Amino acid sequence: MTIRVMLVDDQVLLRTGFRMVLAAQPDMDVVAEAGDGAEAIEVLRATEVDVVLMDVRMPKLDGVEATRRICAAANPPKVLILTTFDLDEYAFSGLKAGASGFMLKDVPPAELLGAIRSVHSGDAVVAPSTTRRLLDRFAPMLPASGKEPEHKQLEKLTEREREVMLLVAQGLSNGEIAARLVLSEATVKTHVGRILTKLGLRDRVQVVVLAYETGLVRAGGGAV
């Protein structure tokens, strides 16, 4: 199956570089490009896309708001935020807006290609350690979200599911959680899937975001 990719960046040279890398892959095809978020939304109305590589800082409509609008549509493509290290706060906002992950613009080509494939298959692509670092730094900047208080929000979970959610929020992978709780990795994956379903979340990245927003985990990675 060919993965249909859209490149959204106001820098033509960057789009050209990404296109060259993707064009060399037998399972990927760059089907659309846009120079800003508004153009991206317009193009998506007429083009079927599986994965959008989205810059954050662009004229007219930035990548965060574009991601929010794209992900709010019916059957949206997956969005992978591309950013530079000193703009992590935009990446975090992008994850809250519905992106399936983020990567740095200078990521090695092999990692970018792997990320696109992972996103396309339904996984989040933010490495647990990177997720933890990002949230540790910017969670204190989150505005009040208006969500239910922690205990109300998380009452839907069993004690084991809450335990798994806590470890996901602390940046542990499924394998690490399995080792910590003496469970099989398949069992952990099942628990994560139930957590997503019960809380109406898209992927494990949004599990982490919710854990910080509800106060289950504090900035710094510690449990409440």
Account of the 3D structure:
With 224 residues, this protein is an alpha/beta fold. It is 50% helix and 12% strand. The protein has 11 helices and 5 strands; from the N terminus they run βαβαβαβαβααααααα. It has helices at 12-23, 37-44, 63-71, 88-97, 109-120, 128-138, 150-154, 159-169, 174-181, 185-199, 204-214, and strands spanning 3-8, 28-34, 51-55, 78-83, 101-104. It is globular and about 50 Å long. 40% of the residues are buried. Mean pLDDT is 82; it is low at 143-149.
Task: Offer a few descriptive terms.
224 residues; alpha/beta; 5-stranded parallel beta sheet; 12% strand
List the helices and strands and how they pair.
Layout (H helix, E strand, L loop, with lengths): L2 E6 L3 H12 L4 E7 L2 H8 L6 E5 L7 H9 L6 E6 L4 H10 L3 E4 L4 H12 L7 H11 L11 H5 L4 H11 L4 H8 L3 H15 L4 H11 L10
Parallel strand pairs: 1-2, 1-3, 3-4, 4-5
Helix pairs in contact: 2-3, 3-4, 8-10, 8-11, 9-10
> In terms of per-residue confidence, which ranges show pLDDT below 50 for 5 or more consecutive residues?
143-149
How far apart the termini lie comes to 44 Å
The profile of the biggest β sheet is: 5 strands, parallel
Oligomer: single chain
Report the principal-axis shape: globular
How would you classify the helix and strand content by structural class?
alpha/beta
